[in-house]
Amino acid sequence: MPQQRRTIHSKRLFVLACAFFLILINPFLNFYLEWNVIQGWYQSFGVGKLWFVSPLEGLESLLVSKQIYWPTLIGMLLPVCLAALLGSVYCSWLCPISFFCEILDYLKKKVTGRKWLKDRLLLSRRILWYVLVAEILLSMILAAPIFVFVSPPGLVGREIMTAVFFHTLALEGVIVLLVFAMNLFSRRLYCRYFCPLGATLNIIGAKRKLKVVQDITRCTDCGLCDRICPLGLSPSKGMAESIYCWNCGECTTVCKADALNYCWETGDWRAQERLSGEC
Amino acid sequence: MAEQKNRFPLKRREFVKIAVSFLPAAFLLPATARAMALVRSPVRVNRLRPPGAVPEEIFAGKCIRCGRCVEVCPYRSIELLDIRAGVFAGTPIIRAEEIPCYLCMKCTQVCPTGTLQKISQEKTRMGLAVVNRHLCYTWQSMTICRTCFDVCPFKEKAITLDQLRPVIMEEYCVGCGICSHACPVTAADGMKAVTIEPIYSWE
To answer: Do residues A225 and A214 both lie within one domain?
Structure first.
């Protein structure tokens, strides 16, 4: 059983790599082969006639322009459903920033020779909500959506596209480097406290179906899960079920006592858990 | 003493004070100008939005900078602005004299936010071509050139010939910029003899 669970980490890396590979190869296909079936990146992603719109960007666009445009709403539907059911899995399983952070974490571990990475800067998690509110307010005051052109995952896609199409790089790419530099203080410092998109997805996924649930009877209090959590949450204290968890599943891979597991909850899961002992 | 005061109502000390107080303004003004440039639209002569664009006031608000219009454009006409364009960073622009819009209308098909709306080629109004009669060789009677007339996709409608001189017909010109791209005359300031004025962008 632990053998099987350990694969979650490699599975996640594989999905992250595929998601990055998709937006990496996409401008090349469009530019050199003029194959336009897939366009865009994770701000808006089009596969043929089906397109996805990132919920925060779509929301900003609708709020600022104060017009309802159905294709945008329909494009937002699938990401919103995904977040409502699975939580902010976009952040941990798809986001290109996450992909680079995983690589950087790996390198950092190799260079320092440490098995666990430390978080040196800890802030209040509530900052996330303030950032989201401030960001939406500022967008509406300026009548120009802010996150759409400084969104780090969007910038990764835009930089790749600019490099392929115009053989140059856009200046705003430094924001991405800044986000990576923030990792020096804490793992995923930007994702934890400052990402408005993450905050939006967290809110949508507040009542998510897929959760990492702790079986308190099995927990041996070893604290390994607290050390591995890239967001610095404490799954040992039940924080994996909180709104901040992004369902990466790292904590389930280290739990030797099999106390942490992904659970698909149907109906009143707490009652169910009490009845069955586990979910 | 009183006479002296009248002769020099402004004491040197006061003058210096006032002069010094204006110094920050000298530094602030360019900064303000730069700040204003961050919210000023990049749309101007021969800098056009792709076809079907919503009015420029709400363009920056509606566009989510997904770059899909750039990716599908088969002529590479559409470029993305970078952060130097301020709040317009990441929005698409067409530099008409470099690569004009050939009206394939693919970008309007993929825009996810309706910033580029689906319209027909004839209804597109990216701008209006304007012939500078002081520059145009034909209007200056230097030669008989009808390049703009020949390349116009709406020949005899958008550009007609009046005694072999090109005349723009406002009701048919879509502002694609093909004429400006093809125009052989370039003035000292880089302007072509026929340029696209984005006069519909604010409607």
So the answer is: yes
Q: Does A14 touch chain B (CB under 8 A)?
A: no
Based on the structure, what is the number of domains in chain A?
2
Q: Which amino acid type is present at position B89?
A: A
H or E segment at A275? helix A269-276
Whether A200 has a pLDDT exceeding 90, the answer reads: yes
For residues A25 and A44, membership in a common domain is answered with yes
Mean pLDDT of chain B: 88
Q: For residue B87, is it within any domain?
A: yes
Shared domain check, A196 and A250: no
Distance from B28 to chain A by nearest Cα, in Å? 21
Residue B138 burial (10 A CB sphere; 0-12, 13-18, 19+)? buried
Task: Tell me whether residue B25 is in a domain.
Answer: no
- Domain identity same for A277 and A182: no
Neighbouring C-beta atoms of residue A211, cutoff 10 Å: 22
In Å, how far are A218, A235, A264, A275, B175 from A268, measured between CA atoms?
22, 21, 11, 11, 61
For residue A92, count other CB atoms closer than 10 A to its CB: 25
Structural domains counted in chain B: 1
Name the least confident of A171-185, A205-219, B26-40.
Answer: B26-40
Q: Which domain holds residue A12?
A: 2-208
pLDDT in tens, B164-194: 999 999 999 999 999 999 999 998 888 899 9
For chain B, percent of residues with pLDDT exceeding 90: 62
Tally of CB atoms within 10 A around B134:
9
Q: How far does the CA of residue A57 sit from the closest CA of chain B (Å)?
A: 6
Task: Establish if A65 touches chain B: CB-CB under 8 angstroms.
Answer: yes
- CA nearest A53: which of A27, A35, A71, A68? A71
Per-residue pLDDT at A275: 46
